[in-house]
Amino acid sequence: MAPPDGLSAETRAAYERGRLIFNGHFRPSGTEGPDDLVGLGPLYNRISCASCHSAGGRGAPPNGPDENFLTALVRVGVVDSAGVATPHPIFGNQIQDRAVPGIDPEAKVSLYWETVTGTYPDGQSYELRKPFLEIDPDPGPSARWSIRIAQSIRGVGLLEAAVTPKDGDGRFGWKAVEPSVVMQNASALSQDMGITSVFHEAPICPNGETVCGGGGREIPGTALADLTLFAKLLPPLAGEDAPNAMGAFLFYRTGCAACHIPELPSYYSAGTVKSYSDLALHDMGPGLDDGLPEGDAKSFEWRTPPLWGLGMVLKYNPAAPLLHDGRARGAEEAILWHDGEARYSKHAFMELPKEDRVRLLAFLMGL
Ligand code: HEC
Ligand code: HEC
Fold it and tell me: Does domain 245-365 have CATH number 1.10.760.10?
């Protein structure tokens, strides 16, 4: 996570301060330490940004009920008969599965995988997995949950500057709820770490109590600004130099590029944002519908994730967990879950001869 070249001495210093906050371990209010990273909890998911976004990268779901959520989390809500979501009376908007000493975590969450099978038109069979959660204490029959793996934060500054075809209010998160990197970071500090800021002054309290922990602005505005500058300057991982022309052709022909738009203009520079995304929400069909709407996004809508840097992720682990909950083990399974607005594209992929499917997947390995 070295600073990019060409920064002024002042910007570089702010980047270094932001990087220290991103990697730093926060401690509960009222405890002593060598730095000013205080304000953790009382409820939280992890003690640092980097514990979910290792080296700025993406997370993974637990492999089974015996593993903790380490780089993923669970959003919750109560959905009424009209489909309107409100915060859960006990858990709020997110289950914080950890707490400072003397306070109980909100719940224990255990993830199970169910197997789903299918067949390509050419007869080749495949196996997918779908997550199922057990939450203790039981959140009740009208509760809905949504598992989210940490997204890569690399390139978020460029995503913020991209001119998108559909200009909605939100842009960040798997459901494009947060409008800017600073708001996304402030929300992460609040929901994931229990740290209040100028944007979220009320602490997250256990069981709906109203007084707990330190309210106000546990992280000063200047520190939030440094953290945000760091996040915005962290570049995306670079893909391969020599593009796979046949794979790229198939990417267009099967309609992937309609949503995964290779490049978007930028508000701030003459360059383009080569993220392979329109940053817009799309109906992805019932298979990816977890029943929990959020912001303007319906329960079956997800933001097209940028595909830049995917090659590096897949080279390191060809079965890397993809999609919002990490259910897909690698790119092929991710494509097979596409449905709704993406169903024609998915079917076009499935109908390709095997060697062309391999070429298209090889193209993704180069991004
Ligand atoms: C408990 C794990 C966890 C921790 C801790 C965490 N994040 Fe995240 N991060 C996530 C998840 C999950 C998402 C996707 C959220 C969603 O869908 O709404 C995300 C999304 C983001 C995004 C949006 C990326 C995009 O492309 O839209 C940014 C930026 C980000 N986090 C920054 C941070 C910062 C800064 C911190 C520390 C203050 C932090 N995160 C702490 C799990 C975590
Ligand atoms: C209608 C828009 C649309 C089309 C067309 C589309 N996608 Fe997607 N794609 C999405 C959305 C939205 C997601 C995120 C779904 C989720 O997280 O549950 C996604 C997720 C992915 C992912 C996982 C990325 C990650 O970071 O987890 C890959 C890989 C992918 N798409 C590749 C493709 C390929 C290849 C094609 C063409 C065969 C394609 N997509 C067609 C919208 C689309």
Answer: yes
What residues does ligand 2 touch, defined as CB less than 6 Å away?
A: 174, 254-256, 258-260, 282, 284, 288, 302, 304-305, 322-324, 331, 334-335, 338, 341-342, 345, 349, 364
* pLDDT recorded at residue 293: 97
Q: What is the pTM of this model?
A: 0.97
What percentage of the chain carries pLDDT values higher than 90? 86
Q: Does the pLDDT at position 328 exceed 70?
A: yes
Residue 313 identity: V
Task: List, for residues 29-87, the tens digit of each pLDDT value.
Answer: 888 888 889 999 999 999 999 999 999 999 999 999 999 999 999 999 999 988 899 99
Among 45, 46, 52, 109, name the best residue to mutate to test ligand 1's pocket (greatest count of ligand atoms within 8 A of Cβ).
52
Between 245-253 and 354-365, two packed helices, what is the crossing angle to 10 degrees?
110
* Residue position matching structure tokens 């220290």: 20
Q: Is the CB of 23 under 6 A from ligand 1?
A: no
Scanning the structure block, which residue is given the tokens 């990697």? 23
**333-349 as b/e: b if 16+ CB within 10 A:** bbbbbbbbbbeebbeeb
Atom of ligand 2 nearest to the CA of 340: 1
As annotated, the residues of the chain forming the CATH 1.10.760.10 domain(s) are 245-365
